[in-house]
Amino acid sequence: MARSRPATLAPRLRQRLLAYRWRRVGGLAAISLALSLGLVAYLFGWSDHFVSRLLTAFLVGFCLLAVTFLGALPFISWAAAHWFGPGWASAESAPARRPAAGRSRPAGRRPITTT
C-alpha cells in the first residue's frame, strides 16, 4: 500500500520536525553547552573578557553557518534542478570497471628468476 505524500513543503517539514525527540535534543544541547562553558571558564577564567569575546565569536560563526546551510545550500540545490534540469542535479556516473581477477599478467613484465 503506497503512502500518500503531502503536496507542499510546509506539511512535509512539519511532519519531519514533529518526528524529532526535542526533549532529548534539548537536554543533550544544554549539557554540552554547560560542559563547554565550564571548561572555558576553568581554563581561561573570567579575566580580560575572554568569555564574552569567545561567545561573540561563536555567535558570529554560528550565524554564518546557519545562513550557509539554511539559505545558500538549498538555493544551490534548487538552482541546479531548475536552471540545469533535474537530470543534471542528480546525474550519477557509471561505476568504474575493474579487470577480472584471474587474468594473465601484462605481456611486458616477466618474473625475476635466479640461476
TrEMBL record:
Residues 89-115 are annotated as: Disordered. The chain crosses the membrane at residues 21-44, 50-76. Keywords: Membrane, Transmembrane, Transmembrane helix. This is Uncharacterized protein. It comes from Hymenobacter polaris. The lineage of its organism: Bacteria, Pseudomonadati, Bacteroidota, Cytophagia, Cytophagales.
